[in-house]
């Protein structure tokens, strides 16, 4: 254990010194960025508000995303069950095939959740745009 103490102590001291220097360097970078942002605030962008967060439809976005993720899990479960119907018995000589089906099942779950979550966000975007259009009478 004595052979590791000297390199470990050197690494700890070097790491602490590095972090202190990094802290001061990043402070200077942050100050430069703040000065650039104040310069940008003084520029007129012809009525375009660059600093709006658009938090008006946050609940709608989250709701559609969760709906899409839920549908993705359901779709992944259905595809996984259809693809491996009755094949969950584990035999010693078919161990590699069982692991292959397990990997394919996890890929199906992830892919279907991502696809349906993306579809949910697209539907949320469409609903936001529809709500922002002026109503015609």
Strand and helix layout:
Blueprint: H1 2-41, H2 58-83, H3 95-132
Helix pairs in contact: 2-3
**How would you sum up the global shape?**
flat
Helix content: over 70%
> Kindly state the mean pLDDT as a whole number?
76
Number of domains: 2
Distance between the termini: 83 Å
Low-confidence parts? none
Q: Give the helices and strands as they follow along the chain.
A: HHH
Number of helices: 3
- Using the CA coordinates, give the radius of gyration: 27 Å
DSSP, total strands: 0
How is the biggest beta sheet arranged?
Answer: none
How much of the sequence lies in strands comes to: under 5%
Derived from helix and strand composition plus strand pairing, the structural class reads mainly alpha
What are the defining features of this structure?
137 residues; mainly alpha
Structure description:
With 137 residues, the chain is an all-alpha fold. The chain has two domains: 1-50; 55-132. It has three helices and no strands. It has helices spanning 2-41, 58-83, 95-132. The N and C termini lie far apart (83 Å). The model has no long low-confidence stretch (mean pLDDT 76).
């Amino acid at each position: 254990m004595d052979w590791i103490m000297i390199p470990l102590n050197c690494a700890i001291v070097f790491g602490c010194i590095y972090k202190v220097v990094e802290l001061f360097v990043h402070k200077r970078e942050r100050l430069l960025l703040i000065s650039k942002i104040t310069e940008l605030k003084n520029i007129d962008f012809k009525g375009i508000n660059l600093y709006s967060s658009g938090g008006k439809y946050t609940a709608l976005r989250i709701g559609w995303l969760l709906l899409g993720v839920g549908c993705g899990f359901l779709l992944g479960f259905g595809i996984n069950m259809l693809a491996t119907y009755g094949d969950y018995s584990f035999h010693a000589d078919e161990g590699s095939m069982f692991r292959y089906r397990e990997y394919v099942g996890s890929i199906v779950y992830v892919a279907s959740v991502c696809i349906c979550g993306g579809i949910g966000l697209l539907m949320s975007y469409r609903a936001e745009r529809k709500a922002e259009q002026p109503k015609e009478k």
